[in-house]
Amino acid sequence: MNESRIKSNIQISENYFLMEIESPDDIKDIKPGHFLNLRVNSINSTDPLLRRPISIHDYNPESGSVFLLYKRVGRGTEILSTYKKDDKINFLGPLGNGFTVDFKKKKILLMGGGMGAAPLYYLCRVLSRENRLTVLLGANDKDELVYFLEIFKNTGAEVHSASIDGSCGHKGNVIDLCLMENIYDYDYIYSCGPVPMLKELQKLAFEKDLKGEFSLEERMGCGIGLCLSCVCKTVKGNQRVCKEGPVFPLEEVIFE
Amino acid sequence: MLEIDLSTKLASLELKNPVITASGTCGFGEELNEYIDIEKLGALTVKGITVKAWSGNKQPRIAETPSGILNSIGLENPGITGFIDEKLPVLANYRLPVFVNISGHSIDDFVFLAEKLAPYPEISGIEVNVSCPNIEGGGMAFGTDSSLVYQVTREVRKVYPGIVILKLSPNVTDIVEMAQAAEEGGADVISLINTLLGMKIDIKRRKPELGNIFGGLSGPAIKPVAVRMVYQVASKVKIPIIGMGGIMSGSDAIEFLMAGASAVAVGTAAMVNPVLLLKIIDEIRDFMKDNKITKLSEIIGQALL
Ligand SMILES: Cc1cc2nc3c(=O)[nH]c(=O)nc-3n(C[C@H](O)[C@H](O)[C@H](O)COP(=O)(O)OP(=O)(O)OC[C@H]3O[C@@H](n4cnc5c(N)ncnc54)[C@H](O)[C@@H]3O)c2cc1C
Ligand SMILES: Cc1cc2nc3c(=O)[nH]c(=O)nc-3n(C[C@H](O)[C@H](O)[C@H](O)COP(=O)(O)O)c2cc1C
Ligand code: FES
Q1: Secondary structure (3-state) at B160
Q2: For the domain A2-95, what is the CATH code?
Q3: For A41-56, what is each residue's pLDDT tens digit?
Q4: Ligand 1 centre and the CA of B209: distance in Å?
Q5: What structural domains does chain B harbor?
Q6: What are the tens digits of pLDDT across the range A71-80?
Q7: Which chain A residues have any C-beta within 8 angstroms of a chain B C-beta?
Q8: Do A228 and B76 touch (CB under 8 A)?
Q9: What is the pTM assigned to this prediction?
C-alpha cells in the first residue's frame, strides 16, 4: 500500500482529468498496462467503500511522476476530481501484468476506444523508440479526442481518429478506421476500449491471423487477486483481470 | 509492561489472536501473503470449495452500495481435487491454522467433501457453508431449515475428525434456532454471519446491476445485524462463535467479542485494504492495554446481559 503526494490534478476537458502523483521511491518497475487501485474516501470513512482502478497513463522516472488520466463518470471519479495539489492519495499498486514491450523494428498498431486510449499512451512512448507505430483513436466527439490526438502525435506515431458525431476525424467508429488501414501490414496490435470494439477487432485479427494484446476492464472488488470479482473468460479458463490481466493475448479472450 | 494475551480458543484449537480471514475474500492465502505476513493472523479461512470445479456466475459480480458491497461470485473454485492437488500444498507451507470452507447442493456433497479433507492434518477444521446466497437450488436452502442444519452437521461430524464449524445464514427468521440445531448436531464452532441477500438496480439501464440479479451484502452496512445475531446466539448456545460482518477496525472487532464471539473474521475490509487485517489485531491489543485488560477472554461476552 502506498501514499503519494499529488503534484497536480487538472481538468483537461468537460469530464477528463489528468492527475500527476509522486512516484513512491520504492517503486521502480512501472510498466505500460499496469494500474493503480486508488482509495477515494477519507481515512476511516467506509463510503465509498471500494477502491477505483485507474491505469498508468504515463510514467516519468526522471521527474518521479506517475500520470493518471480519468473520466468523471460517477461518485468515485467525482471525488478524485476534487483532490488538490499536495493532497495525499492512497493506492495499491502498480498492479496487473502489463503489456509486452520488448519489440524492435516492428510495425505496430495501437487502437484505443474512448478512455481505453489512456493506458496506450505510456505504451506508445515506450514502443515508439524502436518501432513504427500507428495509433487509431475513437470516441464520441471532438472533446474526448483533442487531448489524445495531441499527445500521441508528439510521440512521432502516425495518428488517425474517428468520432461518432463526426466532429473530429472520420465520422464513425474506430473499427471503420481499422478497415481503411491495411491491417495485414502490422506485426502486432494492442487495444483497449469498449467490449464491442474489442470483439470486432478480434474478429478481424482472426481473419488475418494477426497477433496482439487487449487490456480488459471488469468491475473489481480487491484488485489484488483475492475475491474473483473481476474474472473474464479465456481459452485457459477464467482469469482474474486484476492479477493474470488486465492485459491478455488477443486470441485468448472469449467474449460472450 | 503489561503482558497482553490475545490468544483465544475455538473448541480444542488455540489461536494466537482472534483475527481470521473470512472465506472468499482472501483467496487461498498466497495472494494475501504478498501484502501481509499471513502467519501473524489467528487463522485463515479459504474460499468455498465444492465437489466439482465451478466457474461461477456471470459478470458483473460485484456492486458497491452505501458502506457495503453486493457480490455474486457464485462460488468459483477449483473443486475439491483441484484444491487438494494445487492449493493445499502451498497453504501447508504457512505456519497458521487453516479452515477450509465447503459448499454443496446435498447432504451427500457435504459428507463427500468432509471425507476428502479428513486425512489432512495441515487443515485445522472445516467451515460448513450452509448459507451461500449465490448458488442455485442449494446453499442457503440448507441454512434456512433447522432440521437440515442439524442433519448436515451430524453427518459431517461423523466423518470429520477435526474442528467442524457451521457457517450460518442471516437470511432467516430465527438465527438462534439454526445455531441450536448446529450445536445439537455436534458442531464445534458457529460462524456468523454470511452475507445478506440483496440487490441493486442500475437506473440508467433499468436493469439489475449484478449479472446474477441478487447478491450477498457485506461490509460495514451489515455490522449491526451481525452483532445482534452473534449476541442472540451467544446468549443461547455454549459452543464458541466466530463473529463477522463489516469489521473494519479493532473497535468493530471488540463489539463482536463483547457480544459473545470468541474470534472474528474479516472479509470485505481485507479486500479494500489487506493491511487492515493486522491493524485490527494491533488495535485490539491497544484497546486492552488502554483498559488494563490482560486476557482476551476478559472481553468475550462482556456485553451479554
Ligand atoms: C484495470 C482498469 C483500468 C482502468 N483505467 C482507467 C483509466 O485509466 N481511466 C479511466 O477514466 N477509467 C479507467 N477505468 C475505469 C474506472 O475504474 C471507472 O470508470 C471508475 O471505477 C468509475 O468509478 P466511479 O465511482 O466514478 O463510478 P461509479 O459508476 O459510481 O462506480 C460504481 C462502482 O463500479 C465500478 N466501475 C464503474 N465503471 C467501471 C469500469 N468501467 N470498469 C471497472 N469498474 C467500474 C467502480 O469502480 C465502483 O466500484 C479502469 C478500469 C479498470 C478495471
Ligand atoms: C467476494 C466475497 C466472496 C465470498 N465468498 C464466500 C464463500 O465462498 N464462502 C462463504 O462461506 N462465505 C463467503 N463470503 C462471505 C464472507 O466470508 C463473510 O461471511 C461476509 O462477507 C461478511 O463479512 P465482511 O462484512 O467482513 O465481508 C464472501 C464474501 C465476499 C464479499
Ligand atoms: S478484483 Fe478481486 S480478484 Fe480481481
Answers
A1: coil
A2: 2.40.30.10
A3: 887 789 999 999 999 9
A4: 14
A5: 8-56+74-199+217-298 (3.20.20.70)
A6: 999 999 999 9
A7: 1, 39, 44, 46-51, 92, 218-222, 224-232, 237-238, 243, 256
A8: yes
A9: 0.95
Query: How many Å apart are CA A251 and CA A238, to the nearest integer?
Result: 14
- Please check whether residue B232 touches A, CB under 8 A: no
DSSP B85: I
How does pLDDT run across B236-281, given as a tens digit for each residue?
Answer: 999 999 999 999 999 999 999 999 999 999 999 999 999 999 999 9
Tens of pLDDT, residue by residue over B21-74, are 999 999 999 999 999 999 999 999 999 999 999 999 999 999 999 999 999 999
Any idea which residue has 451427500 for its cell? B108
A188-192 β-sheet, strand order: A170-171, A158-163, A132-139, A107-113, A188-192, A212-215, A247-249
Q: Which three cell numbers stand for residue A175?
A: 473499427
Which chain B residues are closer than 8 Å to A243 by Cβ? 31
Q: Which residues contact B202 (CB under 8 A, 6 or more apart)?
A: B208, B209
Q: How far away, in angstroms, is B267 Cα from ligand 2 center? A: 6
Q: Name the closest-CA residue to atom 18, ligand 2.
A: B194
Nearest CA to ligand 1 atom 8: A55
Could you please state the CATH topology (level 3) that the domain comprising A107-249 is classified under. Rossmann fold (3.40.50)
ipTM: 0.93
